[in-house]
Specification:
Blueprint (H helix, E strand, L loop, with lengths): L6 H5 L2 H6 L20 H10 L2 H5 L2 H15 L4 E2 L6 H5 L4 E4 L3 E4 L5 H4 L11 H13 L6 E6 L1 H10 L6 H9 L1 H25 L3 E6 L7 H20 L6 E5 L6 H5 L5 E3 L6 H8 L4 E6 L8 H15 L5 E5 L9 H13 L3
Helix pairs in contact: 3-5, 5-8, 8-11, 9-10, 9-11, 10-11, 11-12, 15-16
The structure holds coproporphyrinogen III (CP3).
The site of coproporphyrinogen III (CP3) has 20 residues, from strand 3.
Length: about 350
């Protein structure tokens, strides 16, 4: 019999209290891409799985790598090991990962194939829900589990261009044929809502939307091509669950205030925006998550400690700061530098 999660301990955890902007004795911290190639124990499990996508789709292995950074560093939250591109994978766009090159879709969308595009049903992601249940069972009672998905605009970038880069095809499409682009965003938003509702039902305490490429849009395009779909997802989730939602838009500083008004509990802040500016722009309406430049983790203990303290101090003393990086951790990060960061943040008392 799986043990039921200790709901009181989770509700009172540092992360969940901070998402409600309640006071805590210290700031919670976790790191984007905390499970990954900078950890030798991750490389071992990935090698045994054969490739990245098999790892993502093997619940026991995905759960094991999710737990690795919690066990090694004592971080305050786990994020389920998966990828934003499982949605285009479920849409049968032919997802593959080319070593050293990143993701590639064999069948990127064209005006013709959009006609047959539909939002995949929840049961496409059984492997993920199983990984979430296994992970929740094995996590400490005070460590919440974060589920996630890509924001529709960011997913559309990959679905149209087929791989990462400057996304020229996408940028041409929303200018030449906005109706077609909206059709893609609309189907993708429904797909993402289904996926996130499923992750919450499977055992996640909160979910995060990654709009990693939202900064490609001009600030006066952000509402039209991204934020309205993020709000639609939040609305759909809120019909089923009270779980707080985190929204991270990368290089979206001019849209931070609008994102803070989306009914998200927290807004992710990239390292190009100071945490003090982000607070001014969001006016204490939401919790903030961020924002150390991941490159700081390539330096030394003194530099890491000083930069962590600078960010903690610049945020101020109000509740509502989740310490994190401003983007994902780099694969060349020495694990002992992550340990130094964790020590610096844990020592800081509000
Ligand atoms: O944060 C975590 O620890 C959870 C796992 C996680 C991964 N991808 C695992 C992963 C999360 C939250 C993501 C999100 C993701 N995936 C985003 C949004 C966040 C961001 O970085 O902006 C994006 C854009 C993707 C798409 C994606 N997946 C790319 C561009 C790549 C290749 C880049 C790279 O680092 O190689 C991936 C692969 C990927 N996703 C890896 C990991 C650990 C590396 C795979 C490997 O082991 O080789």
């Amino acid at each position: 019999m799986p043990t039921a999660p200790d709901l009181t301990a989770l509700h009172d955890s540092l992360l969940m209290r901070t998402l409600r902007c309640e006071p805590t004795p210290r700031r919670p911290l976790w790191l984007m891409r905390q499970a990954g190639r900078y950890l030798p124990e991750y490389l071992q499990v990935r090698a045994a799985a054969g490739d990245f996508l098999t790892l993502v789709k093997t619940p026991a292995a995905a759960s094991e790598v999710t737990l690795q950074p919690i066990e090694r560093f004592g971080l305050d939250a786990a994020i389920i090991f998966s990828d934003i591109l499982i949605v285009p994978d479920a849409m049968d766009l032919g997802l593959g990962f080319v070593t050293g090159e990143g993701p590639k879709l064999a069948k990127p969308l064209t005006a013709d194939t959009v006609k047959t595009l539909s939002a995949p049903a929840a049961d496409h992601y059984h492997y993920l829900y199983d990984a979430i249940a296994l992970t929740r069972r094995d996590l400490p009672a005070t460590v919440p589990l974060i589920g996630f998905a890509g924001a529709p605009f960011t997913l559309a970038c990959y679905m149209i261009d087929g791989s990462g880069g400057a996304f020229w095809r996408t940028r041409a499409m929303y200018r030449a044929d906005p109706a077609l682009f909206h059709q893609i965003l609309s189907i993708t938003a429904d797909a993402v809502a289904t996926l996130l509702i499923g992750q919450l039902a499977a055992g996640c305490q909160t979910v995060m939307l990654f709009d990693s490429w939202g900064g490609l849009l001009a600030d006066d395009q952000y509402e039209t091509f991204s934020l309205q779909y993020i709000r639609r997802i939040i609305r759909q989730i809120k019909e089923k669950s009270d779980a707080p939602i985190i929204v991270f838009g990368r290089q979206c500083a001019l849209s931070l205030a609008a994102i803070a008004n989306s009914d998200a509990a927290a807004v992710g802040v990239d390292w190009q925006t100071s945490i003090a500016s982000a607070r001014k722009l969001t006016d204490g309406k939401v919790a903030l998550q961020g924002n150390m430049d991941p490159a700081v983790l390539l330096t030394d203990t003194a530099t890491i400690t000083a930069e962590a303290q600078r960010i903690l101090t610049n945020y101020g003393t109000s509740p509502g700061h989740i310490f994190n990086l401003g983007h994902g951790i780099d694969k060349n990060t020495p694990p002992e530098n992550v340990a130094a960061l964790v020590a610096a943040v844990k020592e800081h008392k509000i």
